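User: My advisor, Dr. K., asked me to get a structural model of this assembly before our group meeting. I'm new to this, so sorry if the format is off. These are the inputs:
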Amino acid sequence: MKIDGKRNVWHNYQKEIADDHFYYVRSCIRQNFFPGSEYAFLRIMKEELGKDIYDDPKHTTCTGIGYHSDVVPFETIQTVVARHFALMKESGYKNLAVSCVTSFGIYSEIVETWKEFPEELEKIRKSLKRATGREFDIPENIAHTSDIIYKFKGEIAEKQENQLVNKNTGRPLQIVEHIGCHYSKMFPTKGLGGAEFPQVLAGMIEEWGGEVVDYPERRHCCGFGFRQYLIQANRGYSLANSKKKFESMAPYQPDAVICNCPGCTMFMDKWQYVLAQTEGKFYGTGKQGIPVLTYEELAGLVLGYDPWDLGLQMHQVDSEPLLDKIGIEYDKKSKYDLTKKMSPKKVLT
Amino acid sequence: MKKAILTIGGGIAGIEASKTLAGLGYSVSIIEKESVLGGKINNWHQLFPDFREGSEVKEYISKSVDSPDVMVFPGTEITSIEKNDQGFYVKSNKAVAFDVNAILLATGFEIFAAERKEEFGYGIYDNVITSVDLEQRFKKGGQFYTAGGKVPKRIAFIHCVGSRDAKTGNHYCSKVCCITGIKQAIELVKLIPGVEIFCFYMDLRMYGLEYEELYKSAQENYGVQFIRGRLSEASENIDNSILIKCEDTLSGRPLKMNVDLVVLLVGMEAGEGTLNAGTLCNVGFGSQRFLSCRDAHLRRNLTKQEGVFTAGTCTGPMTIPETLENARSAALEIHKYLSEN
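Assistant: The format is fine. Below is the predicted structure of the whole assembly, which you can bring to the meeting.
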């Protein structure tokens, strides 16, 4: 494989990412299943990078899951999104930082729709005004939060406490990067590196000392896919897709999987448990799965945050083998200690 | 004094037209941006449909310019064109300028850059090559191996790479790729006994005489298999073989296959040379960026500019025989124009 070939593709797909003053929109799945991720993102933005980012309590779901499941009509989701934009306008922000990949796809799709069909935009302006009395502006910049971490990956590297290197072998960690379908498959030009060889996570991994595993089913869906999971009868299909990916990546013996989509993180993490229970199959070493992390969790580990502050105990697959490889110290007893207070930056200082 | 013509482009169209014009009593100058004449013919090992050596055509072409009335300027490109009472005054990037009565644009085509079909991994995966790369391998001769040093057991040809593809902006058929793929598939079967060849196509366009026969022969005599389906993606396996995915549109089922080598049948595009020359001459471009002609049925070698003519694939995809015929036609149109003016 020629890595320069990939880099040439990446150069064709760069995007503008705002530098500061972000209006943050959370993810339904991420904040419920991996709440430490959003905490870590806000902490990195504010404390490490000194950025202005507003986490608005009035913000709601984008209704993307309902939209992709055919229970929320397009007009409705457009109006919900318009309300988000109105909240952003009222808060004095112009740059949207989106935690969820599904939401990122929704915002992108709706803004593109409004560009192509201005009459639709006018209809939604009237609908929102009638329903809430609000007015909105289209954001000047829409970035997924992985784009923002990518943009500042160098600044994070300057404060790096832990390299993505196996401390026992000295070998860079072999990391699978998995991009959510709605990050760049809908609009390749809106994703760093495009749809075929996305750079957004690969860039972070390489910047922080790891190596990217390029395996045959790299582009394949994680198995979530809304309808195939939300309809119970289809769940076998969801599981089969995840299994296809694990079977494909297993020969490369990856140390971890990193995702930018909260849904992908959840399915690639939890389906490994199901596969282990139903088929006795483990894709990591020994009786372990492959740890699946969000990019915020990875950035937090790199910066030396306590793994339990990052919420790694919320994952189905144990992350301890990964922590041991990196050489991160952790307190086994406090893993599930709900009374534990947030640590300052260093673990066990 | 003989009337003078400047031919821009020293591929087979430019050379054939120049030779014909010299034979009709004109003085011709050929400028060619590359250091050698012949253009793309230099790349081809054997030609369809009869497996004739490409070098034979090249030899014929080389002899054509062996005339006192044909001057060749390799490594030369035009920089400006001025129209005057006699015709045109053309400056170049070298210390040479041309006072000519007519200009022939024969700037040819460029090979589609397969990297633009990112999903196929050309330039990234070692065992994804183009039909042009394969010709080079044939020309080298010897045993045929994959990038990993294996004798390939299974090879896939992907048709219409950069042709009939809205994603790349090329809606047209490049005309020569289907038959090139069939010719190359047969060559590989001859070279590697027992190799399995699969051609993935949308539909097969066998334009010329003997093409259909070669297509049948590929199936009946060489066991080449044809699967109707456009590739969706290619990925590299841990052993450097390639995993390909497509839909078999005849069976209506998704298909996944491991192959040792993928050959992308790359199409033709109007290149930078055509863009520059066409812009300097202000002859106009068609929707697919090839040069426009004055009348698509009746005046194919004429442009909207008096005294500026076209020959060959700068106006659209053509086979070698079609290119040579088109070039002769252009020469006669120039002769007619200069006789009347």
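One thing worth pointing out at the meeting: Residues 114-268 of chain B form a domain with the FAD/NAD(P)-binding domain fold (CATH 3.50.50.60).

User: Perfect, thanks a lot.
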